[in-house]
Amino acid sequence: MTYPKLTKKPGAIETAAAISRGEMSPLEAVDAAIARIEHQDAHINAVAVTDFDRARETARAMTGQSASSDQPLFGVPMTIKESFDIAGLPTCWGHEEYANNIATRDAKVVSQLKAAGAIFLGKTNVPPDLADWQSNNPVYGRTNNPHDHERSPGGSSGGAAAAVASGMVPCEYGTDIGGSVRVPAHFCSVWGHKASWGLVSKHGHDHPLMAGRDSHDGALSIAGPLARNAADLRLLIELTRTIPLSERNKPLADCRILVMLDHPSCPTDDAVRGPLEAVAAELTRAGVAIDRASELLPDLKAQQADYMRMLNVAMARGMPGPNGKRASATDWFDMLDTQTRNANAWAELFETYDFVLAPPAPVLAIPHREGRVFDGTVTINGTEQPGGSVLCWAGLATYPNLPATVLPVGETDGLPCGMQVISRRWADLDCIAAAEAIGTILHG
């Protein structure tokens, strides 16, 4: 089995350590990242909004100083998804009518990462309304996958994943409601983490229609990091979490794992199945206990239907859908009841299993197309499937509010393939640790 060639550029922790040792200054780190962006982004178009002058100014002020104990990212350059506010920069969510919507404050995550010493170089590309597995909009254009410029890097955090995968920046922060962190990580061969719902604040991550007013955090939707390794994911979660997290530190060999490669709502392409079957075989050889089926699983077809119903209402804030019906308060509370029953079923499953391993998506990076992926069809094993059905693996963890870590595991015909590691709610650090252990088994 062969694996994608992961970038050799240093991660966030490595960059901070080099700055701490005096091997480079914050300004040199920032200038090097800007040079990478200027060199590569003409072909990839990941960084939609640049803020190089202010980044250099911040880095210049930090040069010659030492990091405090609460600044583990001191001098580390990074970017963030366009939908997060950074004071003085536009936040338009891909809409031309909001292209001049300038944020007056930083999002909570931005403030937390700045406090930890990170320096923001700009913001990365998204689809309109963050509602596609492509990152293409009339304001900033189309982002290409670094592995194949004719394909999508995913969405909606596609610019984020492309920036990390191409080596422009060591880490990023995105959001996920329909796989928007996990699918770009899978398509681009980087690490990504979908946090437990409510773990990371999305304050300052509001549609421009809100005009800077605070809004509800958003049902199902989470904020989560992308990086080049598990250690950086862990640090980014620790820096941005809203509650304390515990970690079981249970060796992978002592864990019981459920591997899922089939979903009743959508077939899994062989290009995805092959690398994940190889992972299961490698783990079995390493002595890890794996099951391929369980009576404890909830009705996945019903879960997908309930997830799609709730997703559509959440994305439209209850406004009428194609059928012209507006969701009522009673409809919404009924959906919350159904979601709770599903979450309880998953909690019961995780009393037996430590982790569930599954594809982040049923396909590898898709070719560029006009229009949203979800409005058309997707080719899977030579047949056309409804575009919306490909969200089934995203909904697996999103609907019951569970954490999921994606790691690169293999490739098919040069296209990367990832795998998501799912566990009980608030077991975010355990997911990252298990993904790290699996990565060690696979990659050494």
Please provide a brief summary of the model.
This protein is of the alpha+beta class and 444 residues long. 34% of the residues lie in helices and 16% in strands. Strands 6-8-7-14-15-11-9-10 form an 8-stranded mixed sheet.
General description of the model:
The protein is an alpha+beta fold and 444 residues long. It is built from 12 helices and 15 strands. The chain has helices spanning 12-20, 26-44, 52-62, 108-115, 158-165, 182-188, 230-240, 270-285, 300-316, 329-349, 392-398, 428-443; strands spanning 47-50, 77-81, 119-124, 136-137, 141-142, 171-176, 191-194, 222-227, 256-259, 289-291, 355-358, 377-380, 383-386, 404-412, 415-422. The strands form 4 sheets. An 8-stranded mixed sheet has the order 6-8-7-14-15-11-9-10. A 3-stranded mixed sheet has the order 1-3-2, sandwiched between helices. Strands 4-5 form a two-stranded antiparallel sheet. A hairpin with a 3-residue loop joins strand 4 (136-137) and strand 5. Helix 2 packs antiparallel against helix 3 and helix 7 packs antiparallel against helix 12. It is globular. Residues 1-7 have low confidence and may be disordered.
